[in-house]
Automatic annotation (TrEMBL):
Residues 44-55 have a biased composition (Basic residues). InterPro entries: Creatinase/aminopeptidase-like, Met_Aminopeptidase_Type2, Pept_M24, Pept_M24_MAP, Pept_M24A_MAP2, Pept_M24A_MAP2_BS, WH-like_DNA-bd_sf, WH_DNA-bd_sf. The keyword tRNA-binding does not apply. Keywords: Aminopeptidase, Cytoplasm, Hydrolase, Metal-binding, Protease. One of its GO terms (cellular component) is cytoplasm. This is Methionine aminopeptidase 2. Its EC number is 3.4.11.18.
């Protein structure tokens, strides 16, 4: 039976396709045409296409075995070294930060436990000397070290009252007794290997001061939330100021606005250096300096019912060896040279107070200490006072600026 030219052409194409597929191992059968003119090869081709959709390739079994997540190959370093100053500084900062964070956390746990103990024990009628020594002895006990350079007090216990905002701790012979109507700022530091936790709270007994205390607590929390890598210092101050000065307090029938104490600041912290070089304002001041990763900072805010500005006044108790003091400084007074050596051995550049010198057996040292201050080898830090009759409050936390998060390392259940 003869096929038409059109049908003949279809058969030739089918045979050619079979020959082409033969290279992939398929047998070549001569196609035959059915009554409708469709070759068996054409039917087979359509059927095979459907089968390909249903077929499972070997790699699909691997996908099921690993559930879509495959094991890594050998991971290798690039064998490249950081060469720029910025890259080298990044490496140094990262290593320093990694080494320090655990020590900060150790100090923070000592601070939390000590302040919990203090908050339970502090009562009206207690002498300030008793309160200071109670706190400091608790820190020393938990530090488990008699070496004051290894661990212990990061700086003296501040127990500033009422219009005194900071830097008061009792000297020997102090007769001040805590009263029910006092506003007490408890500011003490703990260090482990020189890594200092700086944290403070305000302690009151009379609830009439609650609006002042809450204003400062809220402002401190705002400063913490605002602070971070690449944040400008002035922006932190502006945020704190806005919150703090939105509050007021009524005392004895008179309403007082709560003001930021504009010349007191937070600060960065370095190893054995409580003020690390950057001041973190609590008012907008135009300082566009930015915070950087791996820095440790103290967010510290002060509120006042007075002028919102402090000046030095009263008997000095706080001292600190100058960071930039030359190692072989010449001091003419023999007693002053010996005192400087004592300071180096017991405190280094950590702040200390006169009671600490008494504790290690120093006596009749005031002339020598004042000589070191005049020579610029030791700095003195007298109490800081707003106007008499006003009240001041303070809260403070230490914050670690990690690359992707900030850690409020001194945070506790209390504040």
């Amino acid at each position: 039976m003869k096929m038409s030219a059109e049908k003949s052409s279809d058969v030739i194409e089918a045979v050619a396709e079979k020959l082409e597929n033969a290279s992939f191992g398929e047998a070549v059968n001569e196609p035959t045409a059915n009554e409708g003119g469709e070759t068996e090869s054409s039917k087979s081709k359509k059927k095979k296409k459907k089968k390909k959709k249903k077929s499972t390739l070997p790699e699909h079994a691997i996908a099921r075995e690993y559930n879509g997540t495959y094991p890594q190959g050998l991971m290798m370093d690039y064998n490249l070294k950081r060469t720029t100053n910025e890259e080298k500084r990044h490496d140094v900062n990262f290593q320093e930060a990694q080494n320090s964070w655990n020590k900060y956390r150790h100090g923070a746990e000592i601070h939390r436990r000590t302040r919990k103990y203090a908050q339970e024990k502090i009562k009206p009628g207690m002498p300030m000397l008793e309160i200071a020594e109670m706190i400091e002895n608790k820190v020393r006990e938990q530090s488990e070290s008699t070496d004051t350079l290894k661990a212990g007090m990061g700086f003296p216990t501040g127990l500033s009252l009422n219009h005194c905002a900071a830097h008061y701790t009792p000297n020997a012979g102090d007769k001040v007794v805590l009263q029910y109507d006092d506003v007490l700022k408890v500011d003490f530091g703990v260090h482990v290997d020189g890594y200092i936790i700086d944290s403070a709270f305000t302690h009151t007994f009379n609830p009439k001061y609650d609006p002042l205390v809450e204003a400062v607590r809220e402002a401190t929390n705002t400063g913490i939330k605002t602070a971070g890598i690449d944040v400008r210092l002035t922006d932190i101050g502006e945020a704190v100021e806005e919150v703090m000065e939105s509050h007021e307090i009524e005392l004895d029938g008179k309403v007082y606005p709560i003001k930021c104490i504009r010349n007191l600041n937070g600060h960065t912290i370095l190893n054995r250096r409580i003020h690390g070089g950057k001041s973190i304002p609590i008012v907008k001041n135009g300082d566009v300096t930015k915070l950087e990763e791996y820095e440790t900072i103290a967010i510290e805010t002060f509120g006042s019912t007075g002028k919102g500005y402090v000046n030095h006044g009263g008997e000095c108790s706080h001292y600190m060896k100058a960071y930039d003091a030359p190692p072989n400084a010449t001091v003419r007074l023999d007693r002053a040279r010996k005192l400087l050596d004592t300071i180096d051995k017991n405190f280094g550049t950590l702040p200390f107070c006169r009671r600490y010198l008494d504790r290690i057996g120093e006596d009749k040292y005031l002339l020598a200490l004042n000589t070191l201050v005049r020579e610029g080898l030791v700095s003195d830090h007298p109490p800081l006072l707003d106007v008499k009759g006003c009240y001041t409050a303070q809260f403070e936390h230490t914050v670690l600026l990690q690359p992707t998060q900030k850690e409020v390392v001194s945070k506790g259940d209390d504040y």
